[in-house]
Amino acid sequence: MKERPRTAFTLAALSLIAFGNVLSAQSGRAPLVVASKPFGESYLLAEMFSQLLESRGIAVTRRPGLGATEVAFGALRTGAIDVYPEYTGTGLIAILRDSLSDSVARDPDAVFGHVSRRFRDLFGVRWLPPLGFENTYAIAVRKETSSRYSLRTLSDLARESGHLDAGLTADFIGRPDGLAGLSRAYGIRFKAVRSLSPALKYQALAQGSVDVIDGYSTDGLLARYDLVTLDDDKSFFPPYQAAALVSARADSLYPDAIAALTLLSGRLDERRMRQLNQRVEVDREDVALVAREALSDLGLIRGAASTKRAVTSRTGQSFAEYMVARRADIAEETLRHLLLSAAALIAAILVAVPIGLALERRRRLAEGTLGALGVVETIPSIALLASMLPLFGVGVAPALVALWLYALYPIARATYTGVREADRDAVEAAEALGTTPMQRLVWIRMPLATPVIMAGVRTAAVITVGAATLAAFIGAGGLGEPIVQGLALADTRLVLSGAIPAALLAILVDRALAVAERALRPAHLRKHKVKRLEDRLG
Amino acid sequence: MAVALVAKDVRHRYGNVAALDGVSLDVASGWLVAIVGQSGSGKTTLLRCFNRMVHPAEGVVLVGGQDVRGQDVIALRRRLGYVQQHGGLLPHWTVSANVGLVLRAMGAEQSPAVGDALGLVGLDAAVFGERYPHELSGGQRQRVALARALAARPDALLLDEPFGALDAISRAEVQTAFADVQRELGLTMILVTHDLSEAARMSRDIVVMRNGRIEQRGSVAELSDSPATDYVRLLITTAMTQLESLAMKESAE
What we know:
Oligomer: heterodimer
Shape of chain B: globular
Number of helices of chain A: 28
Number of strands of chain A: 10
Structural class of chain A: alpha/beta
Number of helices of chain B: 11
Radius of gyration of chain A: 28 Å
Distance between the termini of chain B: 30 Å
Shape of chain A: elongated
């Protein structure tokens, strides 16, 4: 967490990806990295930040849907991202873990003052003035539940909690200002607690699968379903004022960006935010379009989007039309996906083939080494990706390292096996005739092992292309991005617009490598079967 | 230039098994010796001591009068042609390329030598040169292997069961080719085989090995007239039917 990775490999891989970024960057300065957490409002605010910055001529890289608070803040602190929307209450309790006296804890301005001071001192990170609305936790039940148990406050809920099933987001279950703190403050003990994705919890509540959920007060979906939010009568939740959180790097290097982002301070009230969220979460309007219109309504940018309008996900649009409309994004995501996979795969070939060759001469070491690499293969991809965060932060570097680790085993194993099994009589005879070990490797072992090695590379390539989809969870982009975003917004078409190209890409890569495999086959295997038969008969 | 191959009291073990238990063998320059024995007799191990594919624990091995331990192993092997049971041809190289292997390894010119070597074993380079090993018959493959062993003009040939994998007809054919080469080039040769009749057909000087030791050395007639051990007698009896005609032919000469 303290320092950037320094290995030559990571640098090489990063520069490959940077090449992709150069295509989109307009100015000479490195683009500002704007991120969000994986829920609708965070996406929308981050998109508004991005468009506002772009309208002022500042190049932006978007990293939406990065992960929960720990991931997003960790990334900001290490400078992997530059700005994301955060809430003061979250900063106070989930990040600082400070407890304030009740009088201070209830005063939004006092909390903001405390949080911004402590963040500056501890992390060198800056809170811009709040955007103007609070988004606190809204513990919600169905109207029917509310009247049956006469629930109006959280104290009422505590009384009846033994009869009720809760469906809570993983974030809420985990954080100190979530379930744990709430249970302690009110003595709540639910009959059962289930972890639900933010996009699904409202539906689950409406359908009666659960009785209580953790909503956000500005959620667009709160109004859609007939729900009652319960009063925080003991003032357990601190004020959650939304504001832009800015990295130390951006704070010192991008004064123009700070100035631009500050234009949004105090401009968004709760009503407006709820309306905007509703357009995104309920009406399924495109985040970019909603952001643009909101900024335009606020007079912060000129003219509504005419180009982006075509890209929106209208309900009347067929899936094919939707895919066609998204083609530019899909192409970009596919290219990024391909670059990421290719970089990881090439790096893996460069390392795993020499490992396989080296192990051929040290067979006792071989099984142990290959076994260790094989263990990596058993780690679920998402866990492997997540375990890279403390070492490499977010973005491309950790994704590359994780994908690289995945690709090592199939290639190293295939190389070892292929070289070891290569026509032993031929190798032995060549040795007895006075060839050098290097000559045997280059003339005999490698060419004969090529088909086996290529089969390993193919396996690794398909694994890499598949696992790269998950890289979006740690901000590496690619075709996983629409999947992650679609999951967060419960937008199936968005999910499919990433999943289908990803699947096609895997098939395509496999076919392409099959062709390469045929081309690299040793000479005697390439010759025509027919000719061979003719020779036998003739 | 043919060289003498000499082993003096050589001993070697694989784990607890004595593969060579004090073996001494003297092969004069230009001479052909056939070593006969069952698998595990140590015959292949002894052969491989000469090109240092095996490093015996004890004893001295001399090639051209010099201890092999003092010689550069790569250079030594290039001076000693080698043919094994399955040919050991490189499957992805053409016949010409295979025959040129040692020359290429040495960085030497291949073109006339490869054609000459193929000619020596009775194969036309124009017909077979561009074929791959899998396009040849078993007998043709062994002849290519012999041509490969000969192409760099070695001082001696080490032959490890070169006819073992062949059917009777191709075996006779390839044996003739080997015998012709020996006559023509006058090379020192050690032929390792499990087949006494084959040894008798190829050489007048036969060494019988068993359990890492030499039981007897002599011509077929000597072995059958006065076998030194029960094992040699048994070996002779078993092969008698095939040998009788040869022995008679030899005494008639």
